Amino acid sequence: MHPEDRANAAQRLTEMMHDGVPVMFDFRTLGPDGVLRHCHSEGSRGMGADGVTLEVTGVCQDVTERRAAEALLLQTERLNALGQLTGGIAHDFNNLPMVISLNLEIAADMLGEDHPALGMLNPALRAATAGARLTSSLLSFARRQPLRPRPTDVNHLVAEIAALAARTVGARHSFRVAAQPALPDCLIDPSQFQSAVLNLLVNGREAMPQGGEIVIETGLVCLAAGQPALPPDLAPGRYVTVAVIDSGCGIPESLHASLFEPFFTTRAVGQGGGLGLSMAMGFARQSGGQIQLASVEGLGTIVRIYLPVAMRELVASDITAAMIAAPSLSLDFRS
Q: Do residues 172 and 210 make contact, with C-beta atoms less than 8 angstroms apart?
């Protein structure tokens, strides 16, 4: 039994022995392998005619998986509620920066190039532009960002990102692409995809202030019906995966539940807005996929985006599979 839970368990058992009332309590166990598990226990005492305790009976159930599922459900509901709140605010604010920018530009044209007030208008324009970018990121997290999806070769986009990586990650960091060839297309917005991956690259760079290697890895996974999905909430089907891997400082497990919340950041004040992961998650979910993060403090972080294969790719693969399974199958496409 975990040392922190022993006092409570002893107290509950003592109360049962003294009062005779059945007892229920939860505790944790820490095995020799270091794995922490959650348990639920119920017990009662049996008395003889002379009032002497004859026996104590009980049951102990391992509820680790149930606790994990409950925690995941609560986290999902929390993020969904936060997304609704964020999306509502960002949607109402969305048009304001455009109105501000438009009026500032008109004012600048009316004043002329030599007017002393231009020195104040230009910073205001930059602030309005920054506000528009912030609103766009919040809408992406809330899955309300307007997307322009089209069948896209993810490996081709990753190759384009690689050309920008040297400037993005800096001279102290090396960059490598491990792409699985001949991946099927995904129905995504290419510009939003590139923004999401570049945000993940920046996070990886910040996690390695002394330098290191960042890897972008692409692949393909197939989730069958009834198969446990990693991450959860993914429907059965084929997904192209894009992972950004760093060997940096990692993230403490106590912070994992908050990482995808907007404005949450582990960086110092002024070094990041805390919207990179939330924007990437919003893009993945709005595209019909999901995002998964695994991080160990002191070892590094892997962020993997799952993107569903474009429907025309699925149809082609299903037809091919059917023809292989039944060579005599006749298909008439004229109708």
A: yes
**Which two structure tokens, joined as six digits, stand for 90?**
């960002």
Tokens 């002191």 identify what position?
A: 298
Indicate if the alpha-carbon torsion angle 152, 156, 162, 163 is positive or negative: negative
Sign of CA dihedral 307, 308, 311, 314: positive
Contact (CB, 8 A) for 165 and 197:
no
> Encoding tokens for residue 225?
């019906």
DSSP string, 213-225: EEEEEEEEEEE-T
DSSP category for residue 71: H
With CA atoms as reference, report the closest residue to 309 among 140, 157, 188.
Answer: 188
pLDDT in tens, 248-304: 888 888 787 777 776 656 655 444 555 678 778 888 888 888 888 888 888 889 999
Alpha helices in 116-219 (DSSP H): 118-141, 154-169, 190-206
Two tokens at 224? Answer: 């069958």
Rg (CA), the chain: 28
Token pair of 138 as six digits: 């919040």
Residue 162 scores a pLDDT above 50? yes
Which residues pair with residue 18 across a beta bridge? none
- DSSP H or E run through 303: strand 300-308
Q: What pTM value is reported for the model? A: 0.57
105-119 per-residue burial string, b: 16 or more CB within 10 A, e: under 16: eeebeeeeeeeeeee
Distances 76 to 83, 125, 147, 260 between C-alpha atoms, Å: 10, 37, 23, 11
Q: Give CA angle at 241 (235, 242), nearest 5°.
A: 145
